[in-house]
Structures are given as C-alpha cells and as structure tokens.
Amino acid sequence: MNKYLAELLGTFGLTLVVLLSLNGAFPVATAVLAALTLGLFVYTIGHISGTHINPAVTLGLLSIKKIGLQETLGYIVAQFIGAGLAMVVASQFIVNPVVLTAANTGTVGIFEFIGMFFFAFGIAAVVFGKTPASLSGFVVGGSLLLGLSLASFKSNGVLNPAVAFGIGSFSLMYIIGPIIGSIVAMQVFKLLNGEK
Q1: Domains of the chain (ranges plus CATH)?
Q2: What is the C-alpha radius of gyration for the chain, rounded to an integer number of angstroms?
Q3: Maximum CA pair distance of the chain?
Q4: For 25-39, what is each residue's pLDDT tens digit?
Q5: Taken in order 1, 127, 167, 92, is the CA torsion positive or negative?
Q6: Is the pLDDT of residue 73 over 80?
C-alpha cells in the first residue's frame, strides 16, 4: 500500500507545484520547478515506489517488464487521484486561474512524444543501473527539464497525463504522445544496451 500512497503523494506534489507556478510569480520557470520537484521525490520516495508519478512512465516501465500489470493499474489510479487532489487544493487559493488551451493536434502529439522520449530515455538509464544511484535524482530531473523544454516548442510541455488532467491541459494528444514516447524510449534504451 505504501507504494501507491507514495505515488499519490508524489503526483499531488508535482501537480500542485506546476499549478501554483502557472498561476503565480515564481523566481524560476515552471519547467525548472517541475524538474527540481521530481528530483526531490526521486530521493525521498524512490526507494518506496520508484517515483513514477506519471502514467506514461509507468506504462513505459510495464513495456520493459519492470512493473506488473496489477501494480501498473494501481499506480495509475493513485497518480490521477493525486493530481485531482492537487487541483482541488489549488482551487482554494487561486482566484483567477490560468486557462490552458489543450489543443488536440498532431503537432502537439509529436512534441509531447519527442519531449517524453528524451525524458524517459534518462529514466531508463537510471532503471537499468547505468548511472550512479547518488545521481539518480539529478539524471531524472535533468531529463524532465530537457524533455519539457523540447515539448514546449509546440505544446504546453506537460509530458504527464495525470498532471495534464490536474492543470487542465488534458486532451487525447497529451495522453497518447507521452505514453508512446515513454514506451519507445524505454525499448530503444533496452535495445541499445543489449538488455534482456
């Protein structure tokens, strides 16, 4: 049960940070805050759940058999609950929320795919033990920052269906793009490294 609670807490925290950043004046960009938040959670809950806090990451890891189907479903439910709770909490403090346009175009899907590919490629390096454990948060957070930066060229730069739901940037392309990007990146990393 702890792993599901960890996923819920992590997704809640990430979504809340993004929501507050989008609706407030912070000294650093939203993408940087998201990367720092994810890096923090890698170090604080990684030993409990693996710090997926993203349905696309969970499905990518399912594709390389690093998580089972039942666990996958539990993780995804926990992630969406966490994002939904963040949305409810943030709504109590945000007076005039920013309304995001969740375009449902092929271009959005392509850039969410591209961004997620680079993000998940970094995650795969950590999952397969190709980076020092002490740098796991840095690698995962840095990969997210790179992925968000690339995706933001033609999308809202979310790379996370649960967070997309929580911040109001939810459309088919914000689901499909990251999921396919994650699966392809995990498979490519596995192939390049000769992993079984």
Answers
A1: 2-192 (1.20.1080.10)
A2: 15
A3: 52
A4: 888 999 999 999 999
A5: positive
A6: yes
